[in-house]
Amino acid sequence: MKRTIYFKNKPIIVGAGSIAGPKESEGSIAKFIETKMQDDTFGEDSFEKAESKMLFNAIKTAIQHAKKQENEIDAIIAGDLLNQIISSTFAARNFRTGYLGVYNACATFSEALTVGATMIDGGYLKNVICATSSHFASAERQYRYPLELGCTRPPQAQWTVTGAGACVISSEGYGPKITASTIGKVVDFGVIDANNMGAAMAPAAMDTLFTHFNETGLTPSDYDLIITGDLGTLGSRIFKDLMWEKGFDIEKQHVDCGELIYNICESEYQGGSGAGCSALVFSSYIYKRLKEKKFKKIIMMATGALLSTVSTQQGESIPAIAHAVVVES
Amino acid sequence: MKRTIYFKNKPIIVGAGSIAGPKESEGSIAKFIETKMQDDTFGEDSFEKAESKMLFNAIKTAIQHAKKQENEIDAIIAGDLLNQIISSTFAARNFRTGYLGVYNACATFSEALTVGATMIDGGYLKNVICATSSHFASAERQYRYPLELGCTRPPQAQWTVTGAGACVISSEGYGPKITASTIGKVVDFGVIDANNMGAAMAPAAMDTLFTHFNETGLTPSDYDLIITGDLGTLGSRIFKDLMWEKGFDIEKQHVDCGELIYNICESEYQGGSGAGCSALVFSSYIYKRLKEKKFKKIIMMATGALLSTVSTQQGESIPAIAHAVVVES
């Protein structure tokens, strides 16, 4: 059994698109975001439709940015948090390309990049889109409570990011290259608090990074950044502790998209989360810094809590997963 | 843009596992099914847990049948109909392998085979599992009404199959080979009746098969069987009519897993449906007949209706998709 795969032909991320809600557009990565929404509905009559339109927008921006025509795209590989990943499906409906729906909760973005890079590296397709989204209001009413109820949130909670990110991966062109992936496995340390995603996901991030170091022989210092998706402040601390116990000090390299995205974490408690969190941060800030060669080599691990409202109600603990993607400038 | 990919190294399906509910175990493919459930709960205290256990059972059977050890499996690629594909996640939690969650509704099985074959063909992994499931009772209460309500069903409705199928795809070994895939695109002809999945999915099946013939230069007579996933009786008729309009007569080769699975369609109306439908029929009847070389070359198109209860309630029509996989004995 091995979980790390290498891409010999180094698929290229030739373009990226990003879109964010009003709150995220005021955060620390604001200046890197392509489209900033004026309000959460994005001109639609439901939050679900707004989310799908956001994903569509991010894909369109990525295609433009890659200087491609729509008919050059072979497939869209996308997923999101809504039941039956309808944001992705309804966004893909507007394109005439192939569509592969993927779902690993908030780890979906790096899963999509892994599948997409495989398709390109093996010469099966020429250009693919990898994209994910999330929306605070559609996630709240599906997973927790409708906003209108005004429920209070516990201190360990995170704030689902309203945002989407999309990347065009190609066999030819100029841009940062995907050189390897480590596929995550399902890890469950028995956390049952559905408001404490960070604690549930941290062991999965540790498992993937530890496996990555073991299988590749690399160490933290080989990376400029070790990026997690949405562990938040508490989850990040647990993650770093777990890595320390395994013999790796990642304090210098580690950054969490959820911790990073908002200026202050006061009203967002532990920071951002959601399938759009890592996609947005990667497709804006990280991607642009890689293109400028300010980062030379990074590893991005989107992290996902694989629960549903039904599994929680039936007393199940929260399984989690993290997929790692190595990107070099 | 192209949607058909070819697998030069011809990944091998070295083993398959199948499990079915009591009703499906009395159907036309009964003698090919490995595990027959005595009752729908499979010894669990919820239908959701039963479905996950079914998928676990199918994966276990496939691994045994492939004469592999669990630690030889690199990844499980799986999906199902439940929100956040919890059947797959909780089944994958029992294995120490990588996990990639996929979702294209009832088209998930051929999507998983496509992603899996790519991973094997390109030499990225050595052994992967592709698996999907569905369960009548868990699907009814999530998508429609709890069984306890005893709601009547309209005549165009289908019956979600209680069943699961799993295949082990390997780079080495003996068995039927996957030689090509045609990735589906999202097709929406504006059907809004969530009870009439066959009509919603037929145009997607047509689009994929027509694209497949166009891109490969093949014709219906090149195949022993042209298999659709779960169009049902009405959907199959529409599909054949649409193909006829495009200039292809597939009457002789076409068979639909949903039409095939039950002995009589009286109480199941248009026949079977669900992500487990094509997985179960393929992993039992089709796989065994391919192994015996009674079928030489088949094309399998699982078909999916990409709606959710929310998209239906918000007045959206039903987008659909079909992915095709070519398997040769």
Give the N-terminus to C-terminus distance of chain A in angstroms.
Answer: 30 Å
Strand order of the largest sheet of chain A: 1-9-14-13-10-11
- Spans of chain A of at least 5 consecutive residues whose pLDDT stays below 50 are none
Compute the average pLDDT of chain A.
96
Count of helical stretches of chain A = 9
Question: If interface size is counted as residues with C-beta under 8 Å from the partner's C-beta, which chains form the largest one?
Answer: A-B, 59 and 59 residues
Fourth-level CATH superfamily of the largest domain in chain A:
Stage V sporulation protein AD
* Strand elements of chain A, count: 14
State the major sheet of chain A: 6 strands, mixed
Oligomer: homodimer
**Backbone structural class of chain A:** alpha/beta
Output the CATH class name of the largest domain in chain A.
Answer: Alpha Beta
Q: Strand content of the residues of chain A, in percent?
A: 15-25%
Task: Please tell me about this protein's structure.
- The structure is a homodimer of 329-residue chains.
- With 329 residues, the first copy, chain A, is an alpha/beta fold.
- Chain A contains nine helices and 14 strands.
- In chain A, the strands form three sheets. A six-stranded mixed sheet of chain A has the order 1-9-14-13-10-11, with helices on both faces. The first copy, chain A, has a six-stranded mixed sheet with strand order 3-2-8-6-4-5, sandwiched between helices. A two-stranded parallel sheet of chain A has the order 7-12.
- In chain A, helix 1 crosses helix 2 (86-92).
- The radius of gyration of chain A is 18 Å and the shape is globular.
- The two termini of chain A are 30 Å apart.
- The model of chain A has no long low-confidence stretch (mean pLDDT 96).
- Chains A and B meet through helix 2, strand 5, helix 3 and helix 9 of A and helix 2, strand 5, helix 3 and helix 9 of B.
